[in-house]
Amino acid sequence: MKIPDALTGAIRQAQSVLLVAHVSPDGDALGSSLALARALRGMGKSVSILDKDAVPRIYRFLPGWEAVSAELPDVSGGEPDALVLLDCGELERTGFKSLPGRVKLVVDHHLTERSYGDVRWVLPTVSSTGEMVYNLIRALGAEIDAKTALCLYTAIFTDTGGFRYSSSTPSSFRAAADLVELGVKPWSITENVYESISPARMRLMGMAINGIRFHDDVAVIVVTHDMYRETGTTDEDTENFANLARSIQGVEVAVFIRQTGPESFKVSMRSKGRVNVAAIAETIRGGGHHNAAGGKMDGTLAEVEERIVVALKNARRDSQS
Ligand code: 5GP
Ligand code: MN
Q1: Where in the sequence of the chain do the CATH 3.90.1640.10 domains occur?
Q2: In terms of CB atoms within 10 Å, which of 26, 72, 91, 247 comes out highest?
Q3: CB under 6 Å to ligand 1: residues?
Q4: Relative to the alpha carbon of 53, which ligand is closest?
Q5: Nearest to 129 by CA among 102, 109, 146
């Protein structure tokens, strides 16, 4: 994996580093941040980790998660030498209006083109930011101890859906093999991530599955505020709902519509490969990957559902003609 010299150079030179990942952090965002933080601290640097949203309960097995702060660090003594954006390539995705850092670096694997930062290392074909950070730590010559390995493995594991997606390449498996050699217990991570569903979340899932609507080969799964109230759940309990709807036989694209306000929704899309959902996400204030992308839409639920289904139909008609 070719890493820009400007990136490794800037990190080597920095004494203080601020790591920031995207809002609603997932396993890749958190695993990458925590792993890079540990490795850089091992090199004698002072590191802070920032995320606008709290660490979801299911990721609280990751060593060091308590240190992830939601508050911008005090910069009265000066800006950090380097800012590193992880698993996102733009300021908007971090949820902050501005971020301090004498040099601004981006380490990301999203398809969506952005221009933020002085040095951008963006590899859309790589499985995860975790896989990139694994290679970055190796290039820096820093140590990967068992805890760092656990964070990196979780990042790669979650972003490849447990090594199932087409993004799982020989280099992802090589990284994973190395991390297992360094002490990672795969089952322990599987259990934490995929086999620790709370009864309330399982009920929400049942309710959402019952309500799945089909528009030809597009499946729409919805979660509303009323459903959270009825089951005693929160938005954190909806992880992987979009994948659930995609897993249905004959479904090409799944759309997960999650209510965020009276007439505002978060829209997540998952494709089996024939439709590039990142391109559609760009039209709804979002972005992502070919097979997994998301954005935001306003209106009533019926309007949002109608608009996104039409957008998907149009995109496919255009790509066929
Ligand atoms: P999810 O649907 O699980 O929220 O996200 C799927 C993929 O799309 C992730 O890689 C995520 O970064 C990207 N994505 C989801 N929502 C947004 C958004 O609002 N803006 C951007 N730029 N990317 C998003
Ligand atoms: Mn990622």
Answers
A1: 5-194
A2: 26
A3: 93, 110, 112, 242, 268, 286-289, 292-296
A4: 1
A5: 109
pTM over the 0.85 mark: yes
Helix axes 186-194 and 146-159, enclosed angle (nearest 10): 50
Amino acid (one-letter) located at 299: G
Tens digit of each residue's pLDDT (9 = 90 or more) over 252-306: 999 999 999 999 999 999 999 999 999 999 999 999 999 999 999 999 999 999 9
Distances (CA, A) of 145 to 39, 64, 68, 242: 8, 13, 20, 34
Tell me which residue has its CA closest to atom 13 in ligand 1.
Answer: 288
Specify the domain boundaries for CATH 3.10.310.30 within the chain. Answer: 199-320
* Minimal-distance CA residue to ligand 1 atom 7: 293
Residue 147 is classified by DSSP as: H
Ligand 1 mutation pick, 87, 268, 291, max ligand atoms within 8 A of CB = 268
Is 5-194 a CATH 1.20.120.1200 domain?
A: no
Return the ligand number nearest the Cα of 122: 2
Percentage of the chain beyond pLDDT 70 is: 100
Topology classification of domain 199-320: Diaminopimelate Epimerase; Chain A, domain 1 (3.10.310)
